[in-house]
Amino acid sequence: MELEQISVHRFRNIREASLTFAPGTNVLVGPNGQGKTNLLEAIYLFACGKSFRPVKNPDLVCHGQEMSDNRIIARAGGDPFELRMRLRRRGGREVLKNGVKLEKLSQFLGSFRVVLFCPEHLSLVKDGPGRRRSFMDSAICQLKPFYASLLNEFLKTEAQRSAVLKAARSRPVDRALLSVWDERLAAVSVKIAVFRAEYARELTRLAPGEYEKISGGKEALSLKYQSAVYRPEESQEEMAQAYRAVLEENLASDIKSGYTVKGIHHDDLLLSLSGYPARLFASQGQQRSAVLALKLAEGVVSRESGGQEPVYLLDDVLSELDEERRRIITEEMKDRQVILTGTDEKDFAFVDQLFRVRDGFFT
Hints:
Number of helices: 9
Strand order of the largest sheet: 2-1-4-5-6-7
Low-confidence stretches: none
Shape: globular
Strand content: 15-25%
Oligomer: single chain
Largest sheet: 6 strands, antiparallel
Order of helices and strands: EEEHEEEEEHHHEHHEEHHEHEEE
CATH architecture of the domain at 1-113 and 308-363: 3-Layer(aba) Sandwich
CATH superfamily of the domain at 1-113 and 308-363: P-loop containing nucleotide triphosphate hydrolases
Number of strands: 15
CATH topology of the domain at 1-113 and 308-363: Rossmann fold
Structural class: alpha/beta
CATH class of the domain at 1-113 and 308-363: Alpha Beta
């Protein structure tokens, strides 16, 4: 996978920019707040359809403008292809591939793949389960585009069930209606749990080896997928049946809470270092090593799945790492296309191409 060009119009603080990237290491360098991360954000949109920041797509449109129009030309082994995305401030997103409008996000996802590593990811170990679920879900969506539809279906179904639960606070629960939503919730939850379990197995196969290289073998990283729905010894139908029983058993507490208490929305990817929970005991250095190992493993899974190296986006990450970890990650990135950001030009003598960034302009 290679990103050849990007054109950005009215995106964040970038009024207009067109960049052509080298196959190797590309650097965006300049003071903070100038637009480096905004450009990575624009690139990320073409892989995941959304920002890696907690914002809605209309908020990405340049201040005072009604629409942002962005385009990339990329290559995946064969001929180049074009992706175009228009974001409207009043809502709505239009996506085209090679000039043809795509009706569903699933038709778009998977065409272009990236691995993102940003400073926020350094809290992946210490933060709650939601961040680790998001990490897995974003990666899976690139590998299996229809997975995004499953996540949307889950959110809608859980919201409908919650509405029935809240109504049951003031009148007898509508058992027939609740049964319908229980069945749908169980079916979609099991599908999502199976995909997460499969992805966790791939990370479990790869991440410990990456961690050993980074840490020099000082500790051993292990991973475990934790879910109230997934049961490795059972079929999907058996898992769905078991989860429906859990929903029935917890009905009283669900009505009191007004939402489904137990389910895949509480899944976690447990990380341990030499048998101890990393969330509780990992030092800052160990946290960085664990996250690096996860992101490098994510890249290998993407390559093995699609037959192409993804594009690596590294947002001000090297400045967060000590000299040894910086050496390891730059070694790992050899023969891959990398687009990274930094503030000090002297740190990037080794790169293939460098862009200076100032107030949304790139030279």
